[in-house]
Amino acid sequence: MQEAKMIKITDLEKFYRTEEVETIALNKLSIEVKKGEFVAIMGPSGCGKSTLLNILGMLDDPDDGSYMFNGVEVAHYTERKRADLRKHNIGFVFQSFNLIDELTVFENVELPLIYTGVPSAERVKRVEEVLDKMQIMHRRNHYPQQLSGGQQQRVAIARAVVNKPKLILADEPTGNLDSSNGNDVMELLTDLNEQGTTIIMVTHSEHDARYSHRIIRLLDGQTVMENIMI
Amino acid sequence: MIRNYIKTAYRSLIKNKGFTVLNVLGLSLGLASCLLIILYVADELSYDRYNTKADRIYRVNEDLKLGENNVHYAVCMPPLAKTLKSDFTYVENTVRIKNVGLRHVKKGTTNILENNIAFADPSLFDVFTLPMINGNPASALAEPNSVVINETIAKKYFNSTPGSYRDVVGKTLTFDDNTFYKVTGVIRDLPRQSHFNYDFFISMSTFPDSRSTEWLRSDYNTYVLFKEASDHKKLETALPAFLNKYSGAQMQSQLNMSMAAFEKGGSFFRLNLTPLTDIHLKSNRSGELGPNGTVQYVYIFSAIALFILLIACVNFMNLSTARSSNRAREVGVRKVLGSAKRHLITQFLTESIMVTFAATVIALFSTVALLPAFNQLAGKELSISAQTLTWLIPALLFIVLFVGAMAGSYPAFYLSSFQPIDVLKGKLSAGFKGAGLRSFLVVLQFSISIFLIIGTLVIYNQLNYIQTKNLGYNRNQVLIVQNTFELNNQARVFKQEVKQLPGVINATLTGFLPTSNWKNTSIFFKDAAFDQKKALFPQTWEIDEDYIKTLDMKMALGRNFSSQMLTDSSGIIINESAAKFLGLKDPLNKPLYRSNGGKQDISNSKEYHIIGVVKDFNFSSLRDVISPVVLVLAQNKGALSVRVNTTNLPFLLSQIKDKWKALSPNIQMNFSFMDQDFDASYRAEQRVGRIFIVFTSLAIIIACLGLFGLAAYAAEQRTKEIGIRKILGASITTIAGMLSIDFLKLVFIAILISLPAGWFLMNKWLQDFAYRVNIQWWVLVLAGFTAVLIAFITISFQSIKAALSNPVNSLRSE
Asked: How far A230 CA lies from chain B's nearest CA (Å)?
C-alpha cells in the first residue's frame, strides 16, 4: 500500500533579488514527505534550509514550482488562505522560542486556541492537558523571562502542539539549549512523532538529526543527498 | 478574545512604564487643555440660549450714514416696537429695554448705589424666559412705578428667603430718596450667559419719554418675537418701506426733506435684524446693553484646542511606531500562531483606546481641579454641573473613541502589516521604522508650536504697545470721583475744595472722559448752507476750563477755554481729526453751527467759533481710528477728575472723602483711577494674551514630551552603532551631536514652514487694530530660536545619556 503523502514539492524555486544581484535560494527543489515521518533538513549556512522551512510553513511563497499540501496545491494561495490553513494544520518551534513576554506560560499556550476559536472551557482543559504532558504545569502562571531556556522551549513546543497540528516545523529547536535540555526537547519531539505527528526539523546538529527517520541534505538550494535512518 | 486583548494591552502598557507614562501624561495634558477650552467655548456659545423662544427673537438695529459719518446703533426709535407689532401679523410680540443708569436705592436709612436697572415693556416676560417666582408676569410691568426684582435684590433689601418672596411682592422700594416703586414680582437671577443682566426691571410706563412718537431718534433697545414658522427675512424686506412711511413722514414735516432727497445726499438710515443668539458674539454696536464677546476669540481658542489635541495624538502615534521594533516579534509570533490582521488591528486599537481612556479620566479630574485657576485666567465662572455632564460625558466618550482610534490607527495598521517571516528573522529589528511619517509628524508638531509662540509674542507686543502708547493725555495719577452728579449744585463747591488740598495739582468737573462711557454726539455744519453732505457728526463733550490741563492734553493750535473770557460760552475746541474732517487749513475763529435737532437751518442752530485745536487723543478702543471730537464749555457735573501728585495717596483720599461727607453725608463717594479704568477696557485682550501664553506653553511641553520619547528610542536603536563609534574613538560631543542633528533638522524645517504662516496670520489679527505694532524681525527669530533651544535641551538629555554609556555593555548584548 502506498503511504499517504503529506507534502510534495516539485521544482520549487525561490530567488532573492537586490538591486544588483539575484541570489537563488531554492533551485528546482523537489521533496516529498509522508504522513508520520520525522525528517531532518541539514546543510551549511545559506543553503536554503530556512527558506524551505518558511515555504513549507506557508510563511513565504515560492517564485515557481508546485507545493502540494495534503494533496492540495497551495503554492499560490493568498495570505489569508495560507494563514487559515496554517493555524489549523501546522505548529512551529523556533530556535529562539519566540514566546510573548507579556503573556504567562498558560496564556502563551492558549493563544493558538483563541485564534482558532476554541471555547474558553475547552481551552483550559486542552492547555492543562498539554502543559501536564510537557511537565511544566507547575509553571503555568510564570512569565517566559522567569523560565530556563529548556523550560521555555517546552512551553514553545506545548504551544506548537496544543492545536493538535498534523505537521510540526522546528527550526533548530535545540540551538539555544545546552545538551541536556536539548536531548529532552528531542525526546519530546520523538514522542510526538510516535503519536503520529509529522515533523520536519532544520538542524546543524548531526546528533539531533539522528533522532529523525530521514535526513535531507541541501547545498545551494538543491538536494544533494538523502539518508534514510534506521 | 476581547479579554485577551485587554489583558495583553494592560501588561504591555505596564511593562513599558516609561512609554505609558509619557503617552498618558501627554494625552491627559492635551485633553485637559482641550476640555477647559471646550467649556469656555460652550459657555460663549450658550449666550441667550436659556430663552425658550431664542430662535424666534431678533433685535432691531439701526445703521445711520450722515454725510461721511457712519454709525451703527443697537437701539431704535421709541415708537418702533409698538408699530411693528400692530403693522405685521407675523410679529407675535415686541419689547423695549432701556438702561436706567445709576440710582440710589434705600435700605433702612442708607442709600445703596445700584447700577443694573432697566426700564422694560410689560411684554418682557413673554418675549424673554425670565421665570417669575412670585408675582404675575403678565401684569407685573403694566402699571407705572412698578418694579420687578431678582432673588439677589430680594435678599439684599428685604432679607428675604426663597420661601418668603411672596411677602416681598407689594412692598415698596425708594429710589433716590424721592421716587417710590411697588415691587410687583420676584424673578430668578438672570443667567450669566445673557447679553443683558439687570437686577431691577422698572415698568416702561414710568418713563414719560417711552410714549414719544419721534421717528428720528434712536435710544431704545428693541426686540421682536416672531410667530412660529414665520420668516424674519419677510420683515427685513418690508423694513425700508415701513421706515419710509413713518420716519420719512416726520422727516418731511420736520426737516422739509423727503427720505429720497436724504438718501440722494449719500446719507441713509436703515433698520436690520440681529438674531438674539448672535448678539453676544457678533454684535458690537453703539448702545449695547452690556459688553459683548468676540467670535474671533471663540475661533482662536477652538483652533488652539484642536492644535493641542493634534500634538498629543501625534505623540502617541510617534512613540508607538518608534516602539514598533520592540513589538514586531510579538506581531510575528501572533501571526504564525494564526492571528488574522484584523485581530492585531483590534488588539492595538484596544491598547490605544485604553491609554486614551486613562488619559481622559485623568484629564477630567485635572480639569475639575484646574477650573478655578482657569476661571481666574479667563474671567469666567465656568463649572461642571450635572447639566454640563449630560453633554460632557457623551462628548468625552466620543473623544476617547475618536482620539484612541486616530492615535492608534497608524500604529495598528502599520504594526499589523509586518510579515512574520521578516520580523522573526530579525530583519526589522534593526530599523527605526516609519521614519518618514514620523519626521512629518514631528515637523507638524513643531510648526504648530512655533506658530503659537509667534502668536503669543505678537499679542504681547501689541498689548504692551497699547499700555505704553502716547494716548494724547496722561492717565496716570488721576483719581476720578464717579458720582459728583449726585451733589447737584454742590458739585462745583466740591471741585473748588478739592483743588485747594495739598497734593492736588488740578481738577476738572465733567463726565466726559477718554476712559468713561459717557458719549454724546450732535450734528455740526461748517457754514450756513447746512449742507447735509458736509455735516460733522462728532463726539460733543461738555468740559470746563481745567479739563485740558488736568488731563495733560496738548493744544495743537489756539488756546484753551478760560474763565476770564466771557465769550467762551460760544467758543469751541475741536480735535485734529475734526479739523481734518472739516478740511480747515486755518481753523481758528472759523464758525461751526450746531443743529438743535429737527429743522436744519440757521434759525434752529447755535453758532460757535473755534478757539483752539487739541491734539488727537484716544478715547475709544485702539481698535478704532480716532474720530472727530468737539469740546464745549458747559457745567457738566458727571464726575470729578483730580490730578494728584503725592506720596501719601491714602491720606489725600481720606481728605477728599471728608470734603464729600461734609457736603453729602448720606451718599457714598465712588471713585476709581483713570489708569485702571483704561486697563479695564483692554481686559479682554489681556485675558486672551494670558490664555494664549498658558496654552502655548502646554502645547510646547506636550510636543517636547513626544520628542523626549522619540529621542530615547532613537538612541536605544543606535546603541550598537554608538558603541562601535566610541570604540573607534568618537568623542561624546560628536556622538551627542550626531544624535541631536537628526531631530534639529526637523525643527528647522518646521521653522521654515511656520514663520511665514505665523507672520501672515498674526498680521491679519493686527489689522483689527487701528493703532498697532508691526511684527518685528526679532519676533520671528526669537520664536524660531526658542523652539530650537527647547528641542535641543529635550533631545540632548537623551543623546548625552546614550553617548556616555559604556560601549562594552552595548556590544556584549549582541
From this structure: 33
